[in-house]
Design brief:
single chain, 328 residues, mainly alpha, 22 helices, 71% helix
């Protein structure tokens, strides 16, 4: 390993000097030396990782004419050797002392465990219990391992977490992934109800937002009844937050639906939120919608005044006419 390291560094220095003389970025080009690492066995790669002995925390990529020190080149070699070792034998990579892997910003360690979980989830969890105190393992590592064990299958990730006794720690994770498919949504909602975290309503509101991001307003319409009961504070919060985002196409029908679903106590605030956003993005369609709002609607005046506030700096004459229509 020591001979390999010295040979690699000698070649790296030589290439670096040539590249700097030619005005190139030496450190980026040194990535081509990964070809040398691919010729090594996993045991030899492990020896390189353990022998390189760099004591900097991580490598910082330099400017075009920046020259690397021996210590920084050792770190570059060590990082690349570790990455290649993970590809070839992630379980062997775990033999590198825990303190040393944290010199790699902890990323390589969690990456190795994720690859191990992809190969053998049960063996990986045994390692975590022995080396990382099981349920107290770093959350980043936990996420990597569960994702490695189950891949994109959200239900399977939760099943592993349940089996390993860490379901409560990951209940707030993967909302983004889960929001994209009906099966993921089902799994995520079941786990939230099963674990009932202290901030359940906050998490459910965030999940509704993720669903809207991934599946549009129709996703919220379809799922809101499963997330919250009509008339509850959570139900109204989800509707008000939806009203505060760009309604885009068919904004009028979406606005009608929101204000028909929200509780009377939250209707005025929701109408104000809706009109503030709508006036900023499309004041013409907002005004057309206001024109046909039924006069008895209890939130009509608040909606008009919110619209007035938005257009007044740009069209004070129209704002004055709308103010009269609101009876203000």
């Amino acid at each position: 390993a020591a001979e390999f390291i010295e040979h690699w560094m000698a070649e790296a220095h030589q290439a670096e000097q040539a590249l700097i003389a030619a005005g190139g970025n030496a450190l980026e080009k040194l990535a081509s030396y990964d070809a040398h690492l691919k010729t090594l066995s996993p045991e030899e790669l492990l020896a390189v990782c353990l022998t390189a002995g760099a004591d900097t925390y991580y490598l910082t990529m330099g400017s075009m004419n920046w020259q690397s020190s021996d210590t920084e080149l050792r770190r570059l070699l060590q990082n690349h050797a570790y990455n290649e070792l993970i590809k070839q034998d992630p379980f062997l990579a775990l033999r590198i002392p825990h303190d040393q892997t944290h010199q790699f910003n902890g990323w390589y360690e969690s990456h190795a465990l994720g690859e191990c979980a992809r190969i053998d989830p049960a063996a990986t969890w045994r390692i975590i219990c022995e080396k990382y105190h099981g349920k107290d393992v770093d959350k980043n590592i936990l996420d990597r391992v569960l994702t490695g064990a189950a891949g994109d299958d959200i239900a399977a990730r939760f099943d592993f977490a349940r089996k390993w006794g860490v379901l409560g720690r990951v209940v707030g994770e993967w909302a983004d992934d889960a929001s994209k498919t009906p099966s993921g949504q089902n799994s995520w909602l079941e786990v939230v109800r099963e674990t009932s975290p202290p901030d359940k309503d906050v998490q459910l509101a965030k999940f509704a937002k993720e669903v809207e991001t991934s599946q549009g307003f129709a996703g919220v319409q379809r799922l809101i009844g499963r997330i919250a009961e009509p008339g509850t504070a959570l139900y109204d919060t989800i509707l008000r937050e939806a009203a505060g985002r760009d309604l885009e196409e068919a904004a009028g029908s979406k606005a009608d639906w929101i204000l028909a679903q929200v509780s009377p106590a939250a209707a005025v605030a929701t109408a104000e939120t809706l009109m503030k956003q709508w006036t900023e993005t499309d004041p013409l369609s907002a005004s057309e919608w206001l024109d046909v709002v039924p006069r008895p609607a209890p939130w009509r005046r608040a909606a008009i005044l919110a619209f007035v506030k938005g257009i007044e700096p740009h069209d004070p004459e129209a704002a004055a006419q709308w103010r009269l229509a609101a009876g203000a």
